[in-house]
Amino acid sequence: MQKLITTLALAAFLVVGLSASSESRDIWKGGSVYSHYGLGTPYDFRATYADGMGVYGVAMHDNRISSVANPASWSRAVFTNVSGVFEMKSHDATFGTEQVQSTQFQTGPFQMVMPIYRDRMGVSLSITPKTSSRYTTLNDYVLPASQNHSGSDLNYSIENQGSGGINKIEAGIGIRFTRHLSVGYAPSLFLGSINRTQTVSFEDADYRSSNLKESTSHYGFGNRFGLYYSRRDAFRQNDRAAFGLMVSLPVNFVSERSLETRVDFMDVDVRPASEYGDGDATYPLEASAGFSYNINPALQLSTDLLYQNWDNYSNFNGESDPNLQDRFRAGLGGQYIAPRRDGATMFSNFVYRLGVSYDTGNLKLNDSSIETFSIHAGIGIPSSRTNSSIDINAEYGFRGTDSDGLVSERVFGLKVSFNLSELMFIQRRLQ
Amino acid sequence: MQTFDGISNRLTLSLALLLTIWIFSGCDDTPVVGGDLSPDDASVKADTVLLDDTSIISTPSFSGNRQYVTTGSVDDPAIGQLFATAMLRPSIDREEGADSIGPGAAASIALSPDYFYGMEAEPASYHIVEIERRWRSSSWRYDSIPELGHSVVAEFTLTDSDSIVVPLDQQWADKYREIFMTESDAVRDSLYEAEMHGLAIVPADDNGKMFSFEPSQAELLFETADGEGGISQEFRRWAVSLEKDLTFSNDADGSRLVFNTMRHMLELDIEFTEEFLGTNNFSRVELVMYKDTVSMQQDVPSTFLRPGSETMRVYQLEDEQLDFAITADPTFQSNIRSEDNSFRFNLTNLVNERLHLNSDSRKLYGVIGANDGRVFPHIISGKNDPGRSPKLLITSFSKDQ
């Protein structure tokens, strides 16, 4: 049975690993129109256990499951952890009287954490989506007869399709300096491209459909620092309190933009990158602070706050975006880790998670912040013979508003995480 | 303990099912909502590029064995004087032991005139004379001048398009019969090649009317008084010789005179560059040229007939291809739009390909009517008439500035 789990998990990791770096593939239609702005919609998943509780996870650590939330937490690594995530997200969008539903399937972070000195020093290697831009909109236009050559009104529509996103490849180290205090540092490479394809089609068959694909590629180097403080018996016996802090410095992107069109199944430059310009967008500073408290070994509560300085974001042209604002995201949740007992029922061995989150969003459109309120829930299904597990998390959120000419979205997300956790490089003496 | 292992079979199955549903549900959705929130920064624009730099080029054009031959002389008030000679060479072939021409047989040519050019009701006279020098239809150009005999083999007058039979001089008929009746094919062919070069139909002075006919439908007939020994021969070679004395001037800014014979073609100097075209992402590019009906009717009496074509052809030719333009197929064809007498060509694919995919340097040349041995002059409006000068109507999709 264990072989089956391992095979399944490895296959899953392979798929996740191969596809994580190709987040920007223009395969899936749909998504949120709000991902049109800036670098796309920020992507928040950092750890499967945190996701099920609605928190970022900066003040949490689990020996069996890896997390990219806080570099300092890697110092507590005991097992080698590898994890990957599949995600399905459904948007039920309302715009005036229009209502449409879309579903996306994508991959989340892929991460490996390995202890150098068990519970003292650990390293991490990960690929993490940072933003995602996926949307499709359609606008209809009329070019009056007096302004075109057809002799009558020329009806046409433009399909506006966004794809791509920013990914982060990060390697980092966490070191526990004292019994309670750990710090971490993770340099990273941000890279990705934001693509926007506008395709015009005409009612009049004499006119040829054509498109313009603007691709803006970015790369830049980031630096992230973490601090993690954990204390057992903090307030009473058998409890544990932890505090976490993470700061990711702004990243200056080297950006390049091209404009292409498609002629006879070939992409040709409308504006070559050399002419269309080099730019220098900035990915904003990000910080998170949180607190978690284990009332007992089975029950844990956590809360944290994420801040992203999108107000200081600068786009390709070095200009700020008036539609962006600083983003705050607060989460509160808990998890119940049932103690393993032989003879227990199937459900009594799961990990149960529940939480809520509130997100101001990084967008302010028509004087309205695009806020999101979500409830989160998840279960962890552990393996009986190893520390590996499969986690299934769900969230249901409300984003935006249908007033002020905006789109109200109901977002349903379902994530499946595969977590391999093994004592690697240690020969077992006892079978 | 019932944990992962205990439920793995059911879970694996469920997960596989779930993933399959996700994948397919993700592929199928094509939602479009909230377009106002992702405003387009590209739009459709319509522009016009006037083709000021047009000119008429002359090319060597061959007239041999086209569908028609044309003969006659016409003084077109709008264009000038045209003088056409139709050249015909009947076959000398003879089926062994079957065909024969009886002694004293009379010869005549039967033909069906069509496409009259000139004064409608005026009778026009034509002479048929012998061609004195060897010629080849395959290399005969419109501007080649045949060497003609002075003695008239036949003459006829034409008023309308009824079929006519023109009797030929008996001396010519006897000469033809003598060669025809030679038993040896080789001797017959060589005698015919050396001594008879065919017949030319020429206008008698300035006869004021041209007409065309199909040589493949015409016949050389031999008939005897007793009805024995008569035959009909087809024509194997034919060509047209066309002389012009034009009064129409292709001024720099004015209209352009083109002939379907391709001796005079309109050269369109279109630069397939973004600078010239103003953009580089095209939804439609239409080349428009107008027939200059005003110039074509100037000083032309109402009883004057001028044949014409409703079809314009545009060729893509290299400079060195101009000498062989006659063999090229047109790239575009357009029938006239009756509302405004315009010819319109969809160049969208051509422009996209030229601009983005290749470095084809061929120029575009336009003529009205097919090069089929008939003579159709047309005048195309020039840039002195801005509303009707040749132009490109461009509809593009481009980023807003």
Automatic annotation (TrEMBL), chain A:
- The name this protein carries in UniProt is Long-chain fatty acid transport protein
Automatic annotation (TrEMBL), chain B:
Per its UniProt entry, which superkingdom is the organism in?
Answer: Bacteria
The protein depicted here goes by the name DUF4270 family protein
